[in-house]
TrEMBL record:
GO terms for molecular function: fatty acyl-CoA hydrolase activity. This is HotDog domain-containing protein. It comes from the Eukaryota. CDD domains: 4HBT. PANTHER family: 4-HYDROXYBENZOYL-COA THIOESTERASE FAMILY MEMBER, NOVEL THIOESTERASE SUPERFAMILY DOMAIN AND SAPOSIN A-TYPE DOMAIN CONTAINING PROTEIN (0610012H03RIK). InterPro entries: 4-hydroxybenzoyl-CoA_TE (IPR050563), HotDog_dom_sf (IPR029069). SUPFAM superfamilies: Thioesterase/thiol ester dehydrase-isomerase. The keyword Cell membrane does not apply.
Length: 156
């Protein structure tokens, strides 16, 4: 099975955290579906919501914060206002200071996944802007490990 086929087969139980998002009229583009730039906005939002709720992140003052160093998205079906999106989050890999997230977008009331994206963040020290030689702080790591789908691939 190809990687795209595996992603298209994703279901909500493949993820440990789900956040609802009510689409807005302004999310649609001239083709009457959600604009591709909104997907990245939503992916960033579900990640940061989880980090703030479950990992102790306070963006303006936390000693470490995540910098996105890679992102991509695979689109399978469109979604449009006034649909409610369900953003599903998991972690596929944790390194010393990096994490690879997978985010799926589902439309509430529909089974098939609409898109699957990947974000890679490197957590850096606020003062230096560089990854800490000690890695992620323990509270952050514990929160991310909760979302980890396969601990045998936890090191980058």
């Amino acid at each position: 099975m190809s990687n795209i086929s595996r992603l298209k087969a994703r279901t909500r139980p493949d993820y440990r955290y789900i956040l609802e998002y009510r689409t807005r009229w302004s999310d649609n583009d001239m083709y009457d579906h959600m604009n591709n730039s909104i997907y990245n906005f939503l992916y960033d939002s579900v990640i940061n919501t989880y980090l703030m709720e479950r990992c102790g992140l306070h963006p303006p003052s936390s000693p470490q914060y995540g910098m996105v160093v890679h992102s991509h998205n695979d689109y399978f079906a469109s979604i449009a206002f006034p649909a409610c999106a369900e953003l599903a989050l998991r972690v596929n890999r944790i390194g010393n200071s990096s994490v690879t997230y997978e985010i799926a977008l589902f439309e509430k009331g529909h089974e098939s996944v609409r898109s699957v994206g990947e974000f890679v963040q490197v957590f850096v020290d606020r003062e230096t802007g560089r990854p800490s030689p000690k890695g992620m702080n323990p509270e952050l790591r514990r929160g991310l490990e909760y979302l980890l789908v396969d601990s045998s691939v936890s090191k980058l």
